Amino acid sequence: MTTPEKKPKKNFQKHNPAIATILSILFAGLGQLYNRRYIKGAIFIVIEGAFLFAFLEAINYGLWGLRTLGTIPGVDHSIRLLVLGVLSLIVTVIAITLYVFNVLDARKQAQKIKRGWVPLSFKQVIKEVYDYSFPYIITFPGLFLMIFVVIFPLLFSLLLAFTNYDLYHSPPRNLVDWVGLDNFKNLFTVPIWQETFFSVFVWTIVWTVVATTLQIALGFFLAVLVNDERLKFKKLIRTILILPWAVPAFVTILVFAAMFNDDFGAINRDIIIPLFGGDGVAWLSDPLYSRVAIIMVQTWLGFPFIFALFTGILQSISKDWYEAADIDGASRIQKFKNITFPHVMFATAPLLIMQYAQNFNNFNVIYLFNEGGPAVRGQNAGGTDILISWVYKLTFDTNNYSMAAVISIIMGLIVSGFAFYQFRRTRSFKEEGDI
């Protein structure tokens, strides 16, 4: 319920929005006091006072560190200054946003008062805040946490990509410098970086598409097969097929790594050598066979979830549709093509997109199986390394933090762009009235 407006009085008509705006520009909260919004004015005054007296010096130091990354080796710690600079930048943006809101709020309130609006009493203010601002108040802690848990690391990684932070420029002994776009240029022009990046990038795409498609196809095939009304012991079969999902993934990966071992693995010793002779297949020492093995491992790890997902969707399809199709003389292939497949894809499209995005950054299976190996001549990444595992090695093995940040940015753009495009093409993010 809106508060009824009273008829304009002479003192209201003399109320000047320009004065309220100027006072708010001079010091946050003064315009609200001029508008007789004493509580809101006091809050803005306290916020600006705290910013000026408690944070201004620290923010000034942080912004200086962000510009220079230090000037004295052994004294200034460049990365610490970068962290303080990013925090100062975030706090400054928040302060500017509140300051602009304070000016606009004072001007808007002054214009309403000039038209005859009477400021609300304290009790009415509390009721209005509860009615209209309660959702924003509740979500504010989450927003505040997101700023420092999500936005801060992203900004730090983004800025790190424009520095020369590596093993040879490591503080506090050495200073880190801004190098602009040199890291991006080197990634595409320096031979070792260029060859490694394109090799790892292509394998990452192949790995993502093939491994994810295989696990989806296998899960879908088994779900359709088990859902067939002619099959008996469905509960037992479903339980057996979901069992791989119950075993922790890292345990399964380590077991498969031992089974695929070139020297003592069960696959070579008990299957390949007895049947075909020779020394077996170089599963862990040949890049091609390593990639084949790791795709098979991921297919085994991923299909139970897809199977369980599709099983639930298949059971929700009305039998009346199939009965109507039988009456029309539709074959099994036609029923699958026009009823089963579209219904399942429509219901699971967002989750399937997430499967592709997840495998694009699937670090666990790559690293635990053979640590991204084997080594490849002329490259600083292994034969099965994908972008995320290569970033890990650059960070923790060679301490090339700036180049790792560059590759992380490229990864983020690829995943976010692909996910955004695919979600926009589905009905997942559309409002009910727009479908």
From TrEMBL:
A Gene Ontology BP annotation from the UniProt entry = maltodextrin transmembrane transport
Q: Where are the transmembrane segments?
A: 41-61, 81-104, 136-162, 200-224, 236-260, 292-314, 339-357, 401-421
**Segments forming domain ABC transmembrane type-1:** 201-422
- Provide the protein's localization: Cell membrane
Keywords in alphabetical order: Cell membrane, Membrane, Sugar transport, Transmembrane, Transmembrane helix, Transport
Which family does this protein fall into?
Answer: Belongs to the binding-protein-dependent transport system permease family. MalFG subfamily.
- Name-wise, this protein is Maltose/maltodextrin transport system permease protein
Task: Give the organism the record lists.
Answer: Oceanobacillus oncorhynchi
Q: Gene name, please?
A: malF
